[in-house]
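Section 3.1: Structural characterization of target chains.
Under the original work plan, the team committed to producing a structural model for every single-chain target entering the pipeline before any wet-lab resources were allocated. The record below documents one such target. The sequence was received from the expression subgroup and is listed exactly as submitted; it comprises 386 residues.
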Amino acid sequence: MDSLPGHLLNKVLFKTDLRALAMLCCTNTSLQSHIHDPSFVSEYYSQIKSSLLHISTYGSPYLVYHHPHSGSRSHKTKNRLMECHILECCSGLLLLFIDDRLCVTNPIRKKFRFLTRRDKRKQLGLVVNQLDRTTQNFKVVYIFEMAKTDETKYGFEINAGDSWTYSKTTLTCHTSNLDDRMKNHVYLNGSLHWLRNDGSIIAFNPETEQARLIQTDFPRGLTSRTLFASGVNSLTLVSANEKVIYVYALRNILSDPKWVLEKQIQNGVIDKNIVTWYVEAYNGKCLVLRTCYDGVVHVYDLSASKWAVMASVPIWYDANLDFFLFTPSLYSVVGLDDILACGDRGISSLSSIMTLVDRSSPENQLMKMSVDEKEEVKLHLGMLFE
């Protein structure tokens, strides 16, 4: 590999799946340095499409995974897990509730850490920060009400992999419940954000342990199908009707926060005859809708301005599902351990989940190179591509 010019080496590596890329990092120091160069990492990850995970909102032994290259109607399922919840995914990590325990895992690197239990699962948030160009760390944050009268006082607990510690930070504000209609919290720019029923947002930074209330009002005309999500660089509300999907971004978040209409997307998959459908996920690059009468998951690619069918939900699944757009990561993570073979049913289920969401594909990624690219590589390496 060292004999390849940089542009050719990149062409080979860009066609290599993440699992193999992680293994290549162990071959020699020069290749490891090249793979972890910020410019290579940025371009490589820009080409990765998010996979789709979904599971029952109430927990299930059935976890379904759709790979973006596996065909629009195909999926992989693990159906002998202990009852499992997916609580969050962030920067290639999954936060799971499995075997009555919380677990943080990087399924690509086969690393994990079980945490002590917290019952209020919807009030947990996963934060992943970049320490350097090869390493991340994680924290799990639990938000809770310390008192509730005319005002509500919130407290926070933080777990970085070892134990829960109470933050000295508290936040007192007017009373309003955390909004559970629009899925979970949103992590953006180092802070977790919980939406409340009155439109205000609680923001907490686990590194600085600073908390504040972002006071804002909901945009007019929000429908019952509204999702609180993270856009490319802003908190986002996605509100849909049968004709149009409105995407609002929260602007001037530090000074004068206001929801601003950013995009209008024509709803090309729903008509008046379809009664039950949901907005399931959004990440600034794609939007996911699900129709319940046929179980089809539709994805809108914002860069291509195009709808496509990504998946079909198995007919045995219930109507209440949590969907997650998962983008894998090869970074090492401080605080995660190697997976071990043992008789623990929780570990066995976790190993199955890791295998399921491993991005590696049975097809030879190098075969996707053009004929000219293969010929150029052969000149330098003498490789024979059949």
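Residues 1-46+362-386 form one domain.
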